[in-house]
Amino acid sequence: MTTLVMKFGGTSVGSAARIKEVAHIVESRQGAKRVVVVSAMAGVTNSLFEMAEAARGHNLDKALQFLSRIEQTHLEASRSLEVATPDLIGQIKEIVENLQRRIHGIDLLGELSLRTMDEIASAGERLSSILVAGFMGCPLLDARHVIRTDSHFGGAHPKLAAIKKFTALHLAPLLESYDVIVTQGYIGSDDANDTTTLGRGGSDYSAGLLGAAIQASEIEIWTDVEGILTADPRVVSAARTVEILSYDEAAELASYGAKVLHPATVRPALDAGVPVTIRSTFKPNGMFSTISPGESSGRPCVAIAMRRNVVILSVTQESMTDQAGFLAKLFDIFGRRGISVDLVSTSEISVSVSLDRNAPLEALTQELEKLGKVSIASDRAVIAVVGDLLRKTPEVLHTTFVAIDGIPVDLISMGANAINLSFIVQEQDAERVMRSLHTAFFEGGTQ
Ligand code: ASP
Ligand code: MG
Candidates 132, 147, 203: which one to mutate for ligand 1, based on the most atoms within 8 Å of Cβ? Predict the structure, then answer.
């Protein structure tokens, strides 16, 4: 029998009605063993952080108000789901009472360690998972028994070998007897059995780790959009779902702010050969994206991305006599200031780089003037055509240049990994360029 890991984010378990929908979707995968990984109900993790902060600031009333709201949310959902048995209510109350004791402790000491914060933050997933498992009538596995991490509280690193071992010990036997198991995303424990978290948004990471450990046939990441899109739909109304893409392409798109999924979190799964799909709970039978464990999507262009708020800084050498070491000196200055350079273009006597608008431009200019004449062009945007085989595909270059015909372009760079052709335009032209590239590549263009 195949095994699926199905992960549901905060919005997907955000209310009783949404949880019913989750149960529906899980049900639709009958015939497979299913490990259901859930996030905290939407907004709850934030509230837990605010609650703890309020306690640290000796604002006890406010902290207790946060707690009472969290308690009410879960109790109400349990009633709507008709699972408010004394046992289930008891489990919720136990977590709430524990939080209450911690709040008093933090208030007393005025101190909040990362370790305590992780214990508190874990309550969100522990509470939501009680509701989901209760409603689906299936066993709940405490993820802390399986997801072993180091003790880097607030953003712990998983220990893959240990996770594999504990999965075989605790999860595999459960899956022998039951078709569906519910567990929590985001949380784990260290060697001392203290609760840890994988960092905000860490539930995808949990799903990836579990999927790798049990060698799932697929990891389904259920969220509120139909996968990764060919462009930002606020800019390009014809944007549509990218059906298949590689890890590198997904990572490239994420660096441009495609926030659907942080691809690094599913790296362990892809390394283990497990594909990851991104699907919408609002349209369970709609489109979805697959991040394939293979090397490449095989598609010359999978999506077009844009980043605004960019400036171009150029340094032009005044004399040609001092060429050796020019680039080294230049990048040393960026490096020492911890400034990350995005695109680079060089010619014999000048170098241009793109930087975030918020980089310390004045100080940087002063220092760089030792090397040459510095000029800055602001109000720029980077546009990237992301896909595979760019290097081998003259059509991509052709299509791109035809689509941006007549638009002034400042700088062009082709990523060394050949999955990214980027160029910089004036911010006022950016949206128009996005639309015309999208038309060319996806609406009856070359593919
Ligand atoms: N509940 C956690 C957070 O909001 C983890 C997650 O949702 O992935 O950061
Ligand atoms: Mg969340």
Answer: 203
The structure tokens listed for 187 are 């949380």
Tens digit of each residue's pLDDT (9 = 90 or more) over 319-361: 666 667 888 889 999 999 988 888 888 887 889 999 999 999 9
Instruction: Find the Cα–Cα–Cα–Cα dihedral 334, 335, 338, 343, rounded to 10°.
Output: 60
Q: How far is the CA of 162 from the centre of ligand 1 (A)?
A: 23
Domains of the chain by range and CATH? 3-224 (3.40.1160.10), 303-443 (3.30.2130.10)
Whole-angstrom distance between the N-terminal and C-terminal Cα of the chain?
37
d(CA 379, CA 199): 34
What pTM did the predictor assign?
Answer: 0.90
Q: Which residues contact 291 (CB under 8 A, 6 or more apart)?
A: 245, 246, 247, 250, 261, 263, 266, 270, 275, 276, 277, 278
Given the CA of residue 205, which atom of ligand 1 is nearest to it? 8
Written as six digits, the tokens of 398 are: 């052709």
Q: For residue 158, how many other CB atoms are within 10 A of its CB?
A: 22
Give the residues across from 373 on adjacent strands.
316
- Cβ atoms of 310 and 357 within 8 Å: the answer is yes
Provide φ and ψ at 7, rounded to 5°.
-110, 130
